[in-house]
């Protein structure tokens, strides 16, 4: 197949970028692949990009030029916020080329993209014609202009029928798929949205477990890091924290003089995987919906690491109490402690870890996920 893949990088690297790169790398092994990428800028250049977001003529010209040069069988869009914009879908379909789009986040439903605002889930935009409340609240980066601009861009292209031109949408979990379907939008149907998870490829060497719990992720409000720190601070549970983010200083200040919590900062992939393979269990206290199961959880079950996690979003679809892990309410200190205690007292740890690893082998390996993606391409092209 001749596959053309489009992606818009944010100003800061994220999980969407990693998925884009690893899928391109794998597809190139068996197919002819070309990519076109955009990158969000800062300053006046970023302002110009954002003003052009609803109908970016420059991005459309770039797409048109590469389509003429490459003549692909199919186009896969990962992200178009905001340096490229959704109008490029119309440019592609003018040439009658099939389009697949991965829904990495919830921007189709709310300009926040995360369905998270002021340290809580924010679901009020779902099912609305135009998210005026979200605009008033400035749910996107506390900016009226950014929130309104994003809302207007998606609203206008819904009215123009742009998203109905997409042949298949890919979500990262069954939970996300159901959430999109619940919005009752004309371009989302049981046939148009498929589940295609992200894959993780790691070595699964058995390591001797050490006496510490591990948190890996962005140090931000939606990841629930402060709830976890405040719960475990001064307890007999040792916690190591890997990551960086806007709450780095707050976490550091909160654990000054605290002996049982260690802030390691950002670590490389290899060192992080070593810490994961040796920890007693991985703690995942996220307080927001994620597009799919967090990659740290998939890496955890791949390395046969016990998972003690939040009960929010897509996670309970994978982590089932006493079957594949342990769950807690991230807003309740007692629930977090209870889940940890239940884990420590469980005589089924080995079986639960094996069950979770079996799910990894059957669902999240590179070969399985890439086969799913290629089958989607083939069906869409055949149609």
Automatic annotation (TrEMBL):
Residues 205-356 form the Glycosyl transferase family domain. InterPro entries: Glyco_trans_1, Glyco_trans_4-like_N. It holds the Pfam family Glyco_transf_4. CDD domains: GT4_PimA-like (cd03801). Residues 37-182 form the Glycosyltransferase subfamily 4-like N-terminal domain. Gene3D superfamilies: Glycogen Phosphorylase B. One of its GO terms (molecular function) is glycosyltransferase activity. Keywords: Transferase. PANTHER family: GLYCOSYLTRANSFERASE. This is Glycosyltransferase involved in cell wall bisynthesis.
